[in-house]
């Protein structure tokens, strides 16, 4: 009895359903999430049976909150920040009788910050809600009582039978039952899932082809036993039980939610997974957020401020405990004294005074800092990075994209870049270039890499002329008269040639599209390599023009008669697909005459391991050809075949079907079965495909190297190919000392030939240990020599696997960190991630990974920063990245310009917040010494509340967004400036101490200068100034001073800087005019009434407002002068060098200079001519011409700056005469 019949049988027991289930277990498949029950049982077309399992509905929700959880959950998220939690605690303390300030003092800024953050969260969540509603309400046809009824997506349930029409999206994960195309085939596009626009083929089981009409579909009663929901997009394990027959299900029968139906009128399917249990939704889980190094340092700075706050409170509390004494009879401490002022309980006095001062000095922690930083980062990413025309790729219409704004400043501190090769450094536009067939090389021409090698050797390269009969097409750049236009028939090895062409025409998963003519057909391929090989087969006379799930049709050139063709159909019996573990693809096909052939193509390492005995000469010659191709920078594949006896194939196929039907470890069992057949192969030959370098890659790498960034290439290619690509990219050069650690040695080959895997692994490990030690000993002499040659390391995958062993890891890390360039070849995706993590954790350096394919995802996620290339291998890398760009060369703009600017700007923002809050809080601290440490407040409550959120908030945002030390062109002209970020020049404890000194000095000026002068000054009525007059005067000076100090730290001042600074000062005056001019019964303190008007009625106010900011900023001005003159930063040197640069207006000069520009520079220049904000640069007054250290660094030498040389040359300088 089938599972479906069992449920509907009246004899069915309540527990019968559960009795069929397999015991629970936990599985881990890569990133697949572990599930409790091992299997899921679904009864198609039976809602009642599925209801007992309580499967989730199809409605989705991507919102973080709902109407009930918004406030509690939103507040919880906000109070996870230490600063917000601190202010909440202080606000609670301010409501106690021991608080000298009104609760509004701390509650207002906290409320404003929370309100801003919650409004932002609510707006973002509202947008998610609207998007969810639109998706949930999409209509779909559902089978209801022998007819199709249109329902909304959200009303679907597991087991429903649905119909999806052409160009519609699949509403859930569906089991394909039938299609309007022949043989149950449909075509899908998965761009929303993985970014790939190539059409993919899916085929229903032959048993279900008839369930296309609603009448037939109502008869379908099947039971699906499959894996539990997981996030693995490319795997599916399950069986369909129908009519007492168990049929294996694979990913070829599954249509995933988010994909769309193409080239098919409609399909009928059964819903397997719904809603949040679909694979696309399970992949949409948030990746753990990355925190930048600056944010982690900011946490330490906040902790330092907490320690400072505690120290100030402790000093004040101890002072209060000492000061409280009954001898001060006028204080009224003789009887009925509060605990806080009771001389008999000094310990209690200290404790309560600590609480009092904690609320009084609370402004030392900048509550608005986080909000300001988030705002700045968002604007930097959305308005500058995303809209940078220099990083826009017009050919593919792809702009740069910041997928997160958390890591903007991290881009300015990168020290190591880990890069994929194919599609990242190269274009991933494959062209069939050469081949080796039967031991003979075919194909003329010279690759870019070969030209570069010849030029390095001093050999003059002549342009190779194409032959008269050569054929050029995108993807086919082959020239050899011996093969093209049917000439291969005249070759001595024409039978091998025919086998070669048939192999590349049959062994693939390419889908033809469009008209079945050689001129109009288009190929949809999973990779550019496959498309290039199929295109080559067409050019050689083996035209693949049609595909069904079981047949491939090839129009072949007639073997005997020139010019004639014949259509041949090959039955595809089995396809063993390519993956990163197998590194090969195999197809079993049956010829029309009944011949059974296994065609296999793959990496040379895996193919050679599976070759049969004999043909040693051919194998050796072909291996030499592969090395030649690799040296020319070509991508190689080996082709092999094997004839299969019918009896052997039938026995093997039974094992294959059994492995496909397995619900556990299906992939492992399929690999084991494949090994039984993929052996004793006969080598046909090898293909060589050219993948040219992307535009601007060598110059970009050279520029990044000058910036102090070390670049590692991690690729799966052969060592020869990787080395030559590295030479072409300027990663390696002849001046470098190169260390090569390879497993391709005679000793290792000899051990490998014995076939003992354990012995081979131990021997390779020992050899790697010896090679690492030898390289380290040789490199030691260069480590301490700054002017010595640069080092380069090349290591292959086998050796790397051993070197990553814990016992050798330290040696590998020590050697590689001292190398300017590292090339790892023949590496797997896992090894890429391991190498990245090794440097990230072992060296504690900022790392960046960049790649374009799914095999780069683990590497991208392992690094501090992940960059995805929007290339031809889908969008998996982009979807897993933090930033995406279209070309590798755009890294130059992203790092040297945007990254460096973001780092410098945010460092300034953090330092400024630290300075202004410390200066403000310390004036209150100095006042405490004049009040007997009793906790009397110096400022009005509203002054303290609005200081951070109104009067000093806006200007610093403009600095974080618009400040620019040098132009973009100079940033790339002097990439050495980037090293300042790598060395953390602008955010270190020495810089913090310097800003703290300025804050302490200015706070002393604010308090003692004003309090001293106020004691001898009188108001217009002849009275002395009181407390609120003094505090208002001091507060006015503070607001003016800290805003002016902001302008002093700017490298460029725009009208927005002036408007924000002037507006902040004006806002203070408008506020105080209203606040002191209006009185209400609710006022806590009516002593502020008319204070500002009284102050402004005296000359004292204007003289003080002029002198105090000057006196407070004098030390800052002197320091900046001395620092710029004697100890300049590198960017200040560049500013001085180019301060007199003017834009030429002579048309002839402009034309001449334009002709000398590279295409990239010309484009940048055209962009620079667009109308934009004109900045007025400031801070260039201290001209100093003698900067030997900077110029020495241009040539890779280190010379410490000498102050006396700078001063001496400064006295000898000659001023430029104006033209």
UniProtKB/TrEMBL annotation:
It is an enzyme of class 7 (translocase). Its cofactor is Mg(2+). It catalyses: ATP + H2O + phospholipidSide 1 = ADP + phosphate + phospholipidSide 2. GO terms for molecular function: ATP binding; ATP hydrolysis activity; flippase activity; magnesium ion binding. Its EC number is 7.6.2.1. Keywords: ATP-binding, Magnesium, Membrane, Metal-binding, Nucleotide-binding, Translocase, Transmembrane, Transmembrane helix, Transport. It is a multi-pass membrane protein. Residues 878-1128 form the P-type ATPase C-terminal domain. The active site is at 420 (4-aspartylphosphate intermediate). SUPFAM superfamilies: Calcium ATPase, transduction domain A (SSF81653), Calcium ATPase, transmembrane domain M (SSF81665), HAD-like (SSF56784), Metal cation-transporting ATPase, ATP-binding domain N (SSF81660). Residues 42-106 form the P-type ATPase N-terminal domain. ATP binds at residues 420-422, 530, 578, 601, 635, 715-717, 826, 832, 855-856. Mg(2+) binds at residues 420, 422, 852, 856. This is Phospholipid-transporting ATPase.
């Amino acid at each position: 009895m089938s599972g479906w019949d069992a449920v509907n049988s009246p004899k069915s027991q309540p527990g019968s359903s559960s009795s069929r289930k397999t015991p629970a277990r936990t599985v881990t498949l890569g990133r697949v999430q572990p599930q409790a029950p091992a299997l899921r049982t679904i009864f198609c077309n039976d809602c009642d049976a599925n209801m007992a399992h309580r499967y989730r509905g199809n409605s989705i929700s991507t919102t973080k909150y709902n109407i009930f959880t918004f406030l509690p959950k939103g507040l919880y998220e906000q109070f996870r920040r230490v600063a917000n939690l601190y202010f909440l605690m202080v606000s609670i303390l301010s409501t106690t009788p021991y608080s000298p300030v009104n609760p509004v003092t701390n509650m207002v800024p906290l409320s404003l910050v929370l309100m801003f953050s919650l409004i932002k969260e609510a707006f973002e969540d509202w947008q998610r809600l609207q998007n969810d509603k639109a998706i949930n309400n999409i209509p779909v046809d559902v089978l209801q009582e022998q007819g199709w009824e249109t329902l909304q997506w959200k009303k679907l349930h597991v087991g429903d039978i649905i119909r999806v029409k052409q160009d519609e999206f699949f509403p859930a994960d569906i089991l394909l039952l039938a299609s309007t195309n022949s043989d149950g085939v449909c075509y899908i596009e998965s761009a929303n899932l993985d970014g790939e626009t190539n059409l993919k083929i899916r085929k229903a089981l032959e048993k279900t082809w008839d369930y296309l009409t609603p009448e037939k579909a109502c008869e379908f009663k099947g039971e699906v036993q499959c894996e539990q929901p997981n996030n693995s997009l490319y795997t599916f394990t399950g069986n369909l039980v129908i009519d007492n027959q168990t049929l294996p299900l694979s990913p070829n029968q599954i249509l995933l939610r988010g994909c769309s139906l193409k080239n098919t009128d409609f399909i009928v399917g059964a819903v397997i997974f719904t809603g949040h249990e679909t694979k696309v939704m399970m992949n949409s889980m948030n990746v753990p957020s990355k925190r930048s190094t600056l944010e982690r340092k900011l946490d330490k700075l906040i902790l330092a401020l907490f320690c400072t706050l505690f120290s100030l409170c402790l000093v004040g509390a101890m002072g209060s405990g000492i000061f409280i004494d009954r001898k001060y009879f006028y204080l009224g401490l003789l009887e009925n004294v509060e605990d806080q002022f009771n001389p008999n309980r000094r310990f209690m006095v200290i404790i309560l005074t600590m609480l009092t001062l904690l609320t009084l000095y609370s402004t030392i922690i900048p509550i608005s800092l986080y909000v300001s930083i988030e705002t700045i980062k968002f604007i930097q990413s959305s308005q500058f990075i995303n809209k940078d025309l220099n990083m826009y790729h017009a050919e593919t219409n792809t702009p740069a994209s910041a997928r997160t704004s958390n890591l903007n400043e991290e881009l300015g501190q990168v020290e190591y870049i880990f890069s994929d090769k194919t599609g990242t450094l190269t274009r991933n536009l494959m062209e069939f270039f050469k081949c080796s067939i039967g031991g003979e090389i075919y194909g003329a021409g010279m690759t870019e890499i070969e030209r570069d090698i010849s030029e390095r050797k001093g050999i003059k390269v002549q342009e190779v002329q194409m032959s008269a009969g050569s054929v050029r097409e995108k993807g086919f750049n082959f020239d050899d008269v011996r093969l093209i236009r049917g000439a291969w028939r005249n070759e001595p090895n024409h039978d091998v040639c025919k086998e070669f062409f048939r192999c590349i025409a049959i062994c693939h998963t390419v889908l033809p599209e469009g008209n079945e003519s050689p001129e109009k057909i288009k190929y949809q391929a999973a990779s550019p390599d496959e498309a290039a090989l199929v295109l080559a087969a067409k050019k050689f006379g083996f035209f693949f023009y049609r595909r069904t799930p079981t047949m491939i049709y090839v129009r072949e050139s007639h073997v005997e008669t020139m010019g004639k063709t014949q259509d041949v159909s090959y039955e595809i019996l089995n396809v063993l697909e390519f993956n990163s573990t197998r590194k090969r693809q195999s197809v079993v096909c049956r010829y029309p005459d009944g011949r059974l052939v296994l065609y296999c193509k793959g990496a040379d390492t895996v193919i050679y391991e599976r070759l049969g005995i004999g043909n040693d000469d051919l194998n050796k010659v072909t291996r030499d050809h592969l090395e030649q191709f690799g040296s020319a920078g070509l991508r190689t594949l080996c082709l092999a075949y094997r004839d299969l006896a019918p009896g052997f194939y039938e026995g093997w196929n039974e094992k294959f079907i059994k492995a496909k039907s397995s619900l556990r470890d299906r992939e492992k069992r399929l690999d084991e079965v494949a090994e039984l057949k993929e052996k004793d192969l006969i080598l046909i030959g090898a293909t060589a495909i050219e993948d040219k370098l992307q535009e601007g890659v060598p110059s970009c790498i050279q520029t990044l190297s000058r910036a102090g960034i070390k670049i590692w290439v991690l690729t799966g290619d052969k060592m020869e190919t990787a080395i030559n690509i590295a030479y072409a990219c300027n990663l390696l050069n002849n001046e470098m000392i190169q260390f090569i650690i390879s497993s391709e040695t005679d000793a290792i080959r000899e051990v490998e030939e014995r076939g003992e895997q354990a012995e081979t692994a131990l021997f390779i490990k020992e050899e790697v240990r010896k090679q690492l030690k030898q390289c380290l000993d040789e490199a030691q002499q260069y480590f301490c020599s700054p002017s010595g040659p640069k080092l380069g390391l090349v290591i292959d995958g086998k050796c790397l696997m051993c070197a990553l062993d814990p016992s050798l890891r330290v040696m590998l890390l020590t050697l590689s960190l001292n190398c300017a360039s590292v090339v790892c070849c023949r590496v797997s995706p896992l090894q890429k991630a391991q190498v990245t993590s090794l440097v990230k954790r072992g060296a504690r350096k900022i790392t960046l990974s960049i790649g374009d394919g799914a095999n780069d995802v683990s590497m991208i996620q392992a690094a501090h920063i992940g960059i995805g290339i929007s290339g031809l291998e889908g969008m998996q890398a982009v979807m897993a990245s933090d930033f995406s760009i279209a070309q590798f060369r755009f890294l130059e703009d992203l790092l040297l310009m945007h990254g460096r600017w973001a780092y410098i700007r945010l460092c300034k923002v953090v330092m400024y917040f630290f300075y202004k809050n410390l200066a403000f809080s310390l004036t209150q601290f100095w006042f405490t010494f004049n009040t007997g440490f009793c906790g009397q407040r110096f400022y009005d409550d509203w002054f303290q509340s609005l200081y951070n959120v109104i009067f000093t908030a806006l200007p610093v945002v403009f600095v974080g967004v618009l400040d620019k030390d040098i132009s973009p062109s100079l940033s790339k002209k002097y990439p050495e400036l980037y090293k300042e970020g790598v060395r953390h020049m602008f955010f270190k404890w020495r810089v913090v101490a310097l800003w703290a000194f300025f804050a302490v000095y200015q706070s002393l000026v604010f308090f003692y200068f004003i309090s001293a002068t106020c004691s001898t000054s009188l108001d217009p009525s002849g009275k002395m100034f009181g407390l609120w007059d003094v505090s208002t005067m001091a507060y006015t000076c503070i607001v003016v001073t800290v805003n002016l100090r902001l302008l002093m730290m700017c490298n460029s001042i725009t009208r927005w800087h002036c408007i924000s600074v002037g507006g902040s000062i004006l806002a203070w005056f408008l506020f105080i005019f209203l606040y002191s001019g209006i009185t209400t019964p609710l006022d806590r303190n009516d002593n502020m009434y008319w204070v500002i008007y009284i102050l402004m009625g005296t000359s004292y106010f204007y003289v003080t407002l002029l002198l105090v900011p000057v006196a407070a900023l004098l030390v800052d001005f002197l320091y900046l002068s001395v620092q710029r003159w004697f100890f300049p930063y590198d960017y200040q040197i560049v500013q001085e060098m180019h301060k007199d640069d003017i834009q030429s207006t002579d048309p002839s000069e402009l034309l001449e200079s334009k002709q000398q520009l590279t295409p990239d520079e010309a484009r940048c220049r055209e962009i620079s001519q667009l109308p934009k904000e004109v900045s007025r640069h400031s801070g260039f007054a201290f001209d100093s011409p003698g900067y030997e250290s900077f110029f020495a660094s241009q040539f890779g030498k280190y010379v410490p700056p000498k102050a006396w040389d700078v001063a001496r040359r400064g006295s000898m300088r000659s001023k430029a005469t104006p033209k």
